[in-house]
Amino acid sequence: MIYRHRGELVRARQQLNDALAIHVETGDRLGEASVLGDLGSVAAELGQREETCRLLREADAMYEQTGAGGEGPEDVRTNLKELGCE
Question: pTM of the prediction?
């Protein structure tokens, strides 16, 4: 996420997509949900509202399926609400 903090959003998205592919390949649903949430945040910073909502909804659904709790799912749900994506 260093690229995101530097404002290099396109590069951050590329790195996150690489991470997403690894989580999908290894069957790590929590990792996948986490990265989808991060991708949603990057899309929001890029002004891509529809993509943001799609990614956050997908992350939320995965968190729900896994029964995960904690900061990740809470952040995704807060972002969904704040962006009016619900």
Answer: 0.92
